[in-house]
Amino acid sequence: MSAPTILHATFTALPGEGDRVADLLRDFAEAVRAEPGSVVFDATRLVDAPERFFVYEEYRDEASFQAHLANPAGVPFNTALQELIVEPRSQLTFLKRI
After folding, report:
1. For the residues 27-39, what does the mean pLDDT come to?
2. DSSP string of the chain, one letter each residue
3. Which structural domains are found in the chain, ordered by start?
4. For 14, how many CA atoms within 13 A lie in the half-sphere containing its CB?
């Protein structure tokens, strides 16, 4: 059995755009959770810095993660997100379960 692909993404909403980012992320989360290889897609906002977002993702394996990247919902989500965040794109950190 292959190892799961696990990562977290962080990004910061532009001033005044936090609620729009949250709405966009909430809708995208529904699409990702429906993917066959999606194990966890947990989107959160930091309590002490609500403009900051933290998303924890886990996919069954690398093939499931690649299928997630190919999901047609990803392109409009990422295009819209880029217009609403400080960073040029989500900052991804890949993790390995111990």
Report:
1. 97
2. -PPPEEEEEEEEBPTT-HHHHHHHHHHHHHHHHTSTTEEEEEEEE-SS-TTEEEEEEEESSHHHHHHHHH-TTHHHHHHHHHHHBSSSS-EEEEE---
3. 5-95 (3.30.70.100)
4. 11
Burial of residue 45, with CB atoms counted within 10 A of its CB: 0-12 exposed, 13-18 middle, 19 or more buried: middle
The DSSP bridge pattern shows strands 52-59 and 5-12 to be antiparallel
> What pTM value is reported for the model?
0.94
Distance CA 94, CA 86 (A): 21
pLDDT at 29: 97
What is the Cα–Cα distance from 72 to 87, expressed in whole angstroms?
Answer: 23
Q: How far apart are CA 80 and CA 97, in angstroms?
A: 31
At 62 the pLDDT is 97
